[in-house]
Amino acid sequence: MLTIAGRTFRSRLFGGTGKFSSSRVMKEALDASGCEMVTVALRRIDLDNPEDDIMSVLDRKKYLFLPNTSGARDADEAIRLARLARASGGGDWLKLEVTPDPRTLLPDPVETLKATEILVKEGFIVLPYMNADPILALRLQDAGAAAVMPLGSPIGTNQGIMTAFQIEIIINQARVPVVVDAGLGAPSHAAQAMEMGADAVLVNTAIAVAGDPVRIARAFAMAVEAGRDAFEAGLGEKRVDASASSPETGLDFLR
Amino acid sequence: MSPWVWRPATFETVFYMEIICNGEVKNIQPGTKLVAFLENLGVKPDTVFVECDGVILQKKEYDTFVLPENARLELIRFVGGG
After folding, report:
1. pLDDT tens digits along A183-227
2. What does the mean pLDDT of chain A come to?
3. What is the mean pLDDT of residues A116-123?
4. Strand A149-150 vs strand B49-52: parallel, antiparallel, or unpaired?
5. Domain boundaries in chain B?
6. Is B27 in the A-facing interface, judged by CB distances under 8 Å?
7. CATH number for the B4-76 domain, one of 3.30.750.24, 3.20.20.70, 3.30.1360.170, 3.10.20.30?
8. Predicted local confidence at residue B7, as pLDDT
9. Residues A19, A95, A114, A238: which is the catalytic one?
10. I want to staple A180 with a disulfide (CB 3.0 to 4.6 A). Which of A193, A216, B14, B71 is the partner?
11. What is the mean pLDDT of residues A90-96?
């Protein structure tokens, strides 16, 4: 079973709550996904629509809320969002996200490390979203990150794991759980991450914008389980030369 | 308006003051408590986190916190995100 910061999770699929067409669809998709941890963002209330509280449909006993610092462009902004999230009574869990460039939404490694150091000292359970940089993963781990969340490809792109080589190194040397986050566009991508030995994956866009979010959520859940089973089972080694599956002997009668 | 134009004291100038809430100017009566302000906006207090002049307010303060003049109030809540 997956354990992060002393808390165990039966499901290795974490869900996002953005981009769903309605809160009803979101709730049904998250139920179908079996996930136990969901990310949420913090934003100003819309004063013209103050009743609009989509989080009211989610049972906080069922889902651990993982507030993110999305929208933060530097460590200071991320820290401010983190403190606000904690003041909500939502606990100390935090997905740290520092993305200065709105076009790529790639995380700023320097500011992310800086914010991690500060927030860990303040008692936060920090899960930093990071580029798939093995050295940075070590630095974040040393700074006290509870897990590391390398990207498969940029947020919302559905491109799958473009960073497989680096993610494999990260997984091989990590002492904290590795959660592949961002860019996973299909259940097969999630399965690939799990087969590589990732501890969990986080999926939002691919579920939220699918033709049938509830059904694809189920597909992601199965893919994550399949990928994890395959990893634990131990995959056969890759090789260059062919190796016959049928016996190569006992063919004397043919010739 | 030029400060030199004489204006009689009106209901507004005497009994109302300005605060900035989520970037919008709001006129409130001096002494207004946060909880009353939120209810007046139609915001359920338990669904919102509040920052006043950069300081985060604790939920238990909402009932007693009196909004200061020219306060910069931020009303924040959880929304969908990844």
Report:
1. 999 999 999 999 999 999 999 999 999 999 999 999 999 999 999
2. 94
3. 97
4. unpaired
5. 4-76
6. no
7. 3.10.20.30
8. 61
9. A95
10. A193
11. 91
User: Looking at the complex, does the CB of residue B21 fall below 8 Å from at least one CB of chain A?
Assistant: yes
Active site residue A238: no
Structure-block tokens of residue B36 = 């009353």
Question: In this complex, is the C-beta atom of A39 within 8 Å of any C-beta atom belonging to chain B?
Answer: yes
Which residues are B80's β-sheet partners? A40
Taking CB atoms and an 8 Å limit, are B42 and A51 in contact across chains? yes
> Percent of chain B scored above 90 by pLDDT?
41
Q: Name the residue ranges covered by the structural domains of chain A.
A: 2-233
Q: Which class is domain A2-233?
A: alpha beta
pLDDT for B1 equals: 47
Query: What does the pLDDT average to over B47-70?
Result: 90
Tell me, what's the ipTM?
A: 0.84
The pTM is what? Answer: 0.87
